[in-house]
Amino acid sequence: MSSGLRHVAGWLLALLALLWRASCRAVVRDDPRPALRAEGRAYIYAILHAHQVAAILINDDRGIAAMASRSNDADLLVPAMRATGVLAMRGSTRRGDRDKGGRRALELLEEHTRRGFPSLLAIDGPLGPRNHVHRGVVDLARRTGATIVPCVIVPSRRWILRSWDRFQIPFPFCRLSMTFAPPLDPRAMLDDERLRHSVGAALVELEQRCDPAEAARAQPSARDDEAAAPRGDARSGLQ
Description:
Elements: H1 3-23, E1 25-29, H2 33-39, E2 43-47, H3 52-58, E3 64-68, H4 72-83, E4 86-90, H5 102-114, E5 119-122, H6 136-144, E6 147-155, E7 158-160, E8 168-170, E9 175-180, H7 192-210, H8 212-218
Parallel strand pairs: 1-9, 2-5, 2-6, 3-4, 3-5
Antiparallel strand pairs: 6-9, 7-8
Helix pairs in contact: 1-4, 5-6, 7-8
């Protein structure tokens, strides 16, 4: 598809995303954000890669930012992100010795969070393994002092792709249930590995409680081990 056609298709998808979001009903449980906003604390959403579309559709935060790759798929997604209020920081994962812009995207996300705006990170993206917490969320929290808010977003009806993350696409007119774990303050947990483990444990517990069938399917690949090699046979444009 040419760049011009991708541009047109992207904005058509953005219009569809607005209609799609308007058709869904949001339910939010155990929300720590009002208290954090009252304290003037920035926060970082820690979500699973599988929940990215649901996170965009349910978004009600002003000024939230997320990383997006430089792929053609992301070119289609970025207008929809903008239409639903999500600012895209473009960059891709390093391949060998080549930095494809991921470092710059993280720098932009860091600057954004330092200004007090919320950020969104898929902790196991872009290539998994599923539920494996990569360092990005911990590094971002350390550098900015932002609180980490683990959450899962479970659609009542959805398509589930046969990908490494079992990527989920909510049906129109579904209920989107967003449930938070208690926030994790990096200032209260000085050990990076302990903080990273706490993020992963919070997300596993949330998924087991809110979406037990998917949690059970995820367990064989939920290896919180730095030696686990990233893998994947499908990817989305968001990081």
